[in-house]
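INFO  loader      accepted 1 record
INFO  loader      residues=61
INFO  predictor   begin
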Amino acid sequence: MQKKLHIFKSLEEQEQYHKKLMQQSTVADRFRRLFIMQQMTRLLHSPGDSTRKIQIRKWIS
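INFO  predictor   done
INFO  writer      dumping tokens
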């Protein structure tokens, strides 16, 4: 994946450019980008306690 600096004149031009990139990319590239986004999200929002606690109560009436 190449990194380039693009200056767009409008939002529509930017949107068309990104749509064209997505159409030309492979499935592996899309999954790689998704994985990178997930890693960034984990760095910014680290989970607190990752264990689940289940409580089972028996109600007697």
